[in-house]
Amino acid sequence: MSDKGRYLRVALAGNPNTGKSSLFNALTGLNQKVSNYPGITVEKKTGSFRLNDTTTVELVDLPGTYSLHASSPDEEIVLRTLTERENSDRPDVVIVVADVTNLKRNLYLFTQIADLGFPCILALNLSDQIDRKGLKIDVEALQQRFEMPVISISARKKRGMELLKQALASDLKPVATPLYAVPEEHRSAAEQVRQDLGLSNTYGGWLWLTQGNAVEGVSSGEAKQWRIGETVNRYNYLERVIQTHTQRIPELDRSRTAKLDRVLVHPVWGLVILFTLLFLIFQAIYAWAEVPMNLIDTAFSDLSERLSDRFPDGFLSRLFTEGVIPGIAGVVIFLPQIIILFAAISFLEESGYMSRVVFLMDNILKRFGLSGKSVVPLISGTACAIPAIMATRNIENWKERILTIFVTPFMTCSARLPVYAVLIGLVIPSHSVLGLELQGLVLLGMYLIGFIAALGASWGLSKLLRDRQSSHFIVEMPSYRRPHLRNVLLTIYEKSRSFVVNAGKIILLISVLLWIMASNGPGDQFRSAATYVSASQPELQGEALELAIETHRLEHSYIGILGRIIEPAIRPLGYDWKIGIALISSFAAREVFVGTMATIYSVGSDEEQPVLERLRLEKNPETGKPFFNLAVGISLLLFYAFAMQCVSTLSVVKQETNGWKWPLVQMLFMTGLAYVVALIAFQLLQ
Predict the structure, then answer these.
(1) Can you give the pLDDT at residue 437?
(2) pTM of the model
(3) In a domain, 46, yes or no
(4) For the chain, which has fewer Cβ within 10 Å, the N-terminal or C-terminal residue?
């Protein structure tokens, strides 16, 4: 082991679903942070803990991988971290976490890491499953075979933690004899790659040599054959190890996994159970979040009102009470949905059921360029696109993840409901069709339009987007187990903190900017709005006068001027400058459309019915007929169904894709599509 004194860098490695995250949480607790590896979206988790009185351990949780023959960005991160000598994350020791119920496949990765020359500890996780599975493992014999500590642990129950720490504190040595010998005919080439790339040892050079596209002069076909040769060699070796040092006693196998899978992954009943479960999760996100979101909204509104009453009126006080506080509220108000969603996802993952969801949906969604893992983001997008896009982190394939992020905002989220409620109530008659409410059918149709648009956009974009890696559907089917509450709570805490700290900064900035634009304007028309309104409408008094002044001031504010600037562009859709202001304002959040329309059209109540009544009375100045007819209403409905009208979503897309490229492409595509569809609808219906 490298002599680091009071500091030791340790990496956690292992296959997906082996309990790495549980072990990471058990060792580090809340002393952890999440970031991204430079230039890519792969998540980097680091934490720390005290090993003893003299040593602090920095723990790096490497992305889950089945092999060091990298075929995806996260696997390449593991390869680079463990082979590049100058890599800043290169560990002193590697703890390889292995699932005892799938030992041979897990030991494949362990032997590869050991051959890189690292001091290793093999942590046999899920030791509580050994007796239930009827397994007998000679841990001491395995330790002698590999010449490294082999420790039986249960990360979820925190068993074996002290033994693991004692092993870390001991004088660890790398394996003396490589478990796999680089073929003699390729040794000189592997050594040359090691020198050229500054790698740790010859086997590291061999791994990069077998990448195919990483070394000039090596074809992908040759590299594939070399990888196959190593794989066969290692598995033959591990087969002998397993036969010698483990034993399965079938009559002692009390596992219920196989019995449950006969129902839960059934091609018919499995889908029925899945969609029922997803429906319940969606209802929970939609229904349970309503009360806390309303409480948050009320709390921030009350805080803003109290501070407004306490401090003298002025630019700074209004900036704080009308800009900053509502901006913060616009961040925090999403937390209930994020908490509920990630609690559900974490429970599904902890129980082992999430792998079954992926398996069931993959055959359906892959026809549209998506993955089975896209189902959770798409369904949860009907509540809110923000936590839904954050949930795409479970999708390893770059193309499938980008496609899922790109199309999730097409799903009808809860923020669209106030807009739909007003517009449908405005232009769709309250009639029954075959005993069904027509307005309700139209609302259902808006949900279907969003889902169809998501699948259609994904299918089209998948034909244009070139994949960076080959996509092989490999999904681990872990044993079912009881979710660990501590891991669930840590996941909720981590995701919530990530949203508030990262996406929240952008949301707050845009919200304040929009307030400044709506609260300021050039010229006397804005500054002396009361004088102009009183002169032009002397009959107005009291609240009606105040609302007229507010409307006049908004019209001549910077955002009002912007509304008039864009009016020629939106006029073909049937919109005027007032709707233009609402479109711009609703960029902060779609539901802002209703409040903006209420203010613009001098509606004093936030209730839905007064908004409808006033909008029905609005006349088209050119025709004298009602302005909001069927053509305008349907055009607006379709515009909001397709347009990217949510800065919160854009900020999360920027966060998840590590740049502005994809959110800008997404906004231009969705807004362009919304414009074309709304234009066609208005021109056909007018």
Answers:
(1) 73
(2) 0.57
(3) yes
(4) C
